[in-house]
């Protein structure tokens, strides 16, 4: 218990100590609050006393800031006055010495006007604005004149040789002619072998174009757009027209075309095709680049100017095509019409691109109209040609039965058609379903039918029916051989070839029957008289019973007379194809010589024992074979 009392006493002492400490801490806290309250009151009084001083200090600082701003504004105004004096000096000197500095001065002058327009509170601003505006008006007039002089100085017609150098190699002309030197039949092949690249010439030096562009922009900003349009149109259009005249382009109408000889007209059409290609792909393309750069950012003005510059030149070029399309149709014009149609189709995409704006719509429509008219005229010429072939009434005599000039003309015509397969495909509908190929086949078949019909009529002019058959054989064979060796075979087909080969054989058989049946009858021993029924096969009866010596003499005399007549006449006839000629001779020999050998062997002894046997047995089989080799050579007969 004693221990417990001690502990409690200690705790009581500690509690009393802690209580005393807390009372002392509260007293200290109350004192600090009192002191801080006093400080707050004093600071408040100090702030009140300082406020007027702070206000005066702020006002002074603002005043200094305003003074600085005013000084800066004054300085900038003085700078603008100074710039105005410098700019005025450059403007008055003009643009000739240093165009780029002059353009910079004009831009500076505009900035000065803009500056003083925003500071109209100054009394001097109005005067400066008026002065600067007057200077700007003068500068624009000088810029207008500078634009005119600079554009005129560097706008020169393009020499033809320079344009030719921009063409692909295969399209460059031979010396002395603007026409390309490739043949019609190889043109598509040549184009496929060469990568065709056209390089339009630079009509104005590249370093000048940015200056012209800047001058144009200055004139537009000053409201001188109409003057700019007029200057550009007049200057560039003249140069384009001069370039075309130097190239050889001339304005020709329908009346001019009708008066020309065909050779002259054909040459002019060839030149026109070349001129169209050069004009569109080189000259007009280059002109478009010039207008694009000069009027960059001014689309409407650019398109108007380009349309005006090129409009008359395009019209001159297309007018010649129109004159040809409207002129009197004739077969020889078909291929030049196809050439013209082909170049218009070739240039269509370029025309649509170069003359793509609304202001060039008339030119695009005129080009399309010409293309359609050329196609229509070409199609009508096909019909005309077919009718002309069928009705050809030329009196050209083919006395030897050879190939008629009409036949070779028509076949060459058909061959040329197949050099234009891609063009004809476009002409007949421009599709890939085989229709255009069928159309070409139909046209070719009709033309050849018309030719055969005409040849049938011409064959009736011969008095000798054997020559009629030889003539038809020669001509149909020429047609078949030509078709087999050309692309026409793929269109007409093997059936057509086989049918017409049989026709050739039929005419050959008819020739043999008409020419040689009568003479073979003299070698026939069928019956008792020479007028017996001999077959063309030359069959000889083994028995000579019933044929007297005088009959045999008559037979040999008749044979000699008939063979000599045939030899004299048919050695002047012609079979121009060597293979056909040899096969026809062989066919005759295979019938005639065995019959003659057999007859001479059986009955020759009856003559040889008599007087003058050579009078009757005039030829040996070898003599006949040699003389047959002279047939169809077109030579004058000279006797055995």
From TrEMBL:
InterPro entries: Cullin_repeat-like_dom_sf, Exo70, Exo70_C. Residues 166-191 are annotated as: Disordered. Keywords: Exocytosis, Protein transport, Transport. SUPFAM superfamilies: Cullin repeat-like (SSF74788). It comes from the Eukaryota. Residues 271-630 form the Exocyst complex subunit Exo70 C-terminal domain. Belongs to the EXO70 family. Component of the exocyst complex. This is Exocyst subunit Exo70 family protein. It comes from Datura stramonium (Jimsonweed).
């Amino acid at each position: 218990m004693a221990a417990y009392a001690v502990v409690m006493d200690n705790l009581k002492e500690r509690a009393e100590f802690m209580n005393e400490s807390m009372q002392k801490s509260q007293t200290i806290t109350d004192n600090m609050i009192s002191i801080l309250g006093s400080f707050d009151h004093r600071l408040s009084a100090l702030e009140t006393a300082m406020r007027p001083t702070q206000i005066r200090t702020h006002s002074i600082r603002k005043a200094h800031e305003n003074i600085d701003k005013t000084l800066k504004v004054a300085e900038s105004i003085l700078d603008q006055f100074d710039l105005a004096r410098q700019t005025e000096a450059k403007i008055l000197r003009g643009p000739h010495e240093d165009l780029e500095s002059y353009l910079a001065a004009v831009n500076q002058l505009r900035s000065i006007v803009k500056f003083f327009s925003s500071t109209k509170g100054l009394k001097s601003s109005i005067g400066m604005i008026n002065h600067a505006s007057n200077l700007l008006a003068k500068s624009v007039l000088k810029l207008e004149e500078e634009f005119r002089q600079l554009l005129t100085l560097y706008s020169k017609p393009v020499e033809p040789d320079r344009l030719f150098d921009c063409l692909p190699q295969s399209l460059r002309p031979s010396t002395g002619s603007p026409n390309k030197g490739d043949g019609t039949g190889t043109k598509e092949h040549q184009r496929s072998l060469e990568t065709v690249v056209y390089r339009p010439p630079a009509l104005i030096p590249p370093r000048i174009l940015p200056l012209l562009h800047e001058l144009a922009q200055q004139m537009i900003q000053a409201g001188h757009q109409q003057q700019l349009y007029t200057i550009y149109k007049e200057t560039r259009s003249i140069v384009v027209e001069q370039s075309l005249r130097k190239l050889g382009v001339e304005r020709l109408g329908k009346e001019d075309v009708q008066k020309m000889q065909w050779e002259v007209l054909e040459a002019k059409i060839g030149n026109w095709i070349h001129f169209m290609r050069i004009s569109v792909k080189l000259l007009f393309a280059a002109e478009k680049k010039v207008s694009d750069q000069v009027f960059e950012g001014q689309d409407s003005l650019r398109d108007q100017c380009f349309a005006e510059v090129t409009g008359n030149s395009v019209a001159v070029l297309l007018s010649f095509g129109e004159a040809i399309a409207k002129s009197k149709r004739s077969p020889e014009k078909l291929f030049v019409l196809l050439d013209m149609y082909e170049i218009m189709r070739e240039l269509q995409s370029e025309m649509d691109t170069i003359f793509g704006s609304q202001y060039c719509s008339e030119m695009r429509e005129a080009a399309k109209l010409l293309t359609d008219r050329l196609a229509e005229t070409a199609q009508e010429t096909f019909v005309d040609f077919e009718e002309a072939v069928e009705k050809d009434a030329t009196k050209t005599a083919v006395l030897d039965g050879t190939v008629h000039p009409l036949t070779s003309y028509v076949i060459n015509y058909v061959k040329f058609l197949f050099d234009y397969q891609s063009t004809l495909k476009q002409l007949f509908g421009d599709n890939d379903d085989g229709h255009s190929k069928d159309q070409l086949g139909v046209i070719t078949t009709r033309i050849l039918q018309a030719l055969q019909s005409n040849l049938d009529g011409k064959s009736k002019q011969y008095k000798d029916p054997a020559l009629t058959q030889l003539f038809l054989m020669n001509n149909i064979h020429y047609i078949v051989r030509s078709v087999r060796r050309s692309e026409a075979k793929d269109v007409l087909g093997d059936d057509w070839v086989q049918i017409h080969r049989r026709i050739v054989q039929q005419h050959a058989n008819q020739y043999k029957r008409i020419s040689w049946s009568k003479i073979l009858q003299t070698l026939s021993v069928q019956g008792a008289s020479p007028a017996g029924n001999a077959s063309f096969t030359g069959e000889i009866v083994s028995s000579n019973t019933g044929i007297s010596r005088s009959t045999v003499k008559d037979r040999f005399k008749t044979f000699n007379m008939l063979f000599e007549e045939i030899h004299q006449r048919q050695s002047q006839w012609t079979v121009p194809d060597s293979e056909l000629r040899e096969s026809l001779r062989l066919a005759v020999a295979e019938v005639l010589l065995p019959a003659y050998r057999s007859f001479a062997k059986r009955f020759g002894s009856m003559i040889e024992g008599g007087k003058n046997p050579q009078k009757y047995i005039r030829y040996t089989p070898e003599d006949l074979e040699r003389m047959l080799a002279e047939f169809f050579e077109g030579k004058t007969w000279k006797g055995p």
